[in-house]
Amino acid sequence: MKIKIIYPKWPKLNRQTEFHLPPHGPVCFAAAIPNDIEISFYDENIQPVDFDGKADLAAFSVMLTCQIPRAWELAGRFRKQGIPVIFGGIGTMLHHEETLRYADSVFLGEAEGRFEEVLNDVKNNSLKKIYNYLNDFPDMSLIGPARRSNNWEKELFKALIPLKKKWISHPIKDDDDILDLAAEAGCWYVYQAVFDTSDVIRQRIRRLKERGIGVEGTIILGMDDHDEDYIKRLVDFLLEVELDLAEFTILTPFPHSPIRAALEKQKRILHNDWLRYTGAEVVFKPAKMSAEALQKMFFYAWDEFYRNSSQNLQMAKMFLNVIEKEKADGTYKGTRLRRGGWKAGK
User: 79 and 129: one domain?
Assistant: First the structure.
């Protein structure tokens, strides 16, 4: 069986510099599809959708409301070719009644452990109009890592090398060949979750920095194993491994999340003032310290990490490194510093 997964484009914000982050939803959905199914993926923000070639199913992953009209348009082309179309994703959940006019089927909820039913129905030409799992959550053990192909990453990076572009990314697979190619292709900055002080994290940061790739860590404070001493040791660890930038947030039990359900059951939610659910305020009772102590340690983490060099200065240093890379490969066009940030020369 062959499935085409499509992530439709949408209008970008006026006056905003256009950028494209790799979508996480479609690759997580792909991980719920058995490995013997042939998958092709098209992010229309960076490549046209291929309507040539046979497919047994066109699966649309829709995140945003402003994305869905384009998805309907593309779906019509597949249906004219006799290829059945199914929609899923957050945007589909919000617009599923309208979407039924443009699709053969809509899938509501999480795909893990459930999508094989869809595949069997496709094989039997009995696709249902709605697969509704919104109130039926899968076993967490069924959720695997996002389905990504290492041949795909290498091909992408090799194609980027002659373009001499400079780019940033969420985590890149910790593989020597892939990291080497990413650096050669122009990656200069990675946004990396730091969830403990293990050698795994230490080596991960070291291997990126050895290749000239800067690292910004995102760190959540207030987990149940955190106390004041742990947070102090964590900040010391970040300084020791020479993390370039750190972004600290406080664990926040957002509505409908598993952590909120657990904290509600334990009667540890302090209030439901949604304006204060920012990631910068303590809105629950921590396990190993008071709410006041956690709030104090949040400010301590920011102040201590940037004690010798402000966040703005650290970012400026990283920009200067990018300029040096551009000078080395002949793509530097000049920049000038202005209030509020850096402006590229024309």
Answer: yes
Q: Do the Cβ atoms of 282 and 270 come closer than 8 Å?
A: yes
User: Buried b vs exposed e over 187-199: b needs ≥16 C-beta within 10 Å?
Assistant: bbbbbbebeebee
SS3 214: strand
CATH number reported for the structural domain that contains residue 212 in this entry: 3.30.750.200
pLDDT tens track of the chain, all 346 residues? Answer: 999 999 999 877 544 456 677 787 888 888 888 889 999 999 999 899 999 888 999 999 998 887 999 999 999 999 999 999 999 998 898 889 999 999 999 999 888 888 899 999 999 999 999 999 887 776 666 666 666 665 778 888 999 999 998 888 888 888 999 999 999 999 999 989 999 999 999 999 999 999 999 999 999 999 999 999 999 999 999 999 999 999 999 999 887 678 989 999 999 999 988 878 888 899 999 999 999 999 999 999 999 999 998 888 888 888 888 888 888 888 877 654 443 444 443 3
The strand order across the sheet containing 187-193 reads 167-169, 187-193, 214-221, 245-250
Do 85 and 172 fall into the same domain? no
Residue range of the domain that includes 224: 161-313
Do 206 and 303 sit in the same domain of this protein? yes
**Phi, psi torsion values for 200, nearest 5 degrees:** -60, -50
pTM, entire model: 0.61
> Closest Cα to residue 27, out of 110, 116, 145, 147?
147
**Amino acid identity at 203:** Q
Q: Let me know whether 119 and 27 are in one domain.
A: yes
The candidate with the shortest Cα–Cα distance to 137, out of 111, 159, 119, is 111
Please measure the distance between the N-terminal and C-terminal CA atoms of the chain and give it in whole angstroms: 50
- Closest by CA to 194, choosing from 227, 231, 167, 229, is 231
Q: What separation in angstroms does the CA of 217 have from each of 102, 191, 199?
A: 42, 6, 15
Q: In what order do the strands lie in the sheet with 2-7?
A: 38-43, 2-7, 57-61, 85-88, 105-108, 130-132
The alpha helices in 101-142, defined as continuous H runs, are 115-123
Greatest Cα pair distance in the chain: 65
Kindly give the interhelix angle for 228-240 and 291-305, rounded to the nearest 10 degrees.
Answer: 10
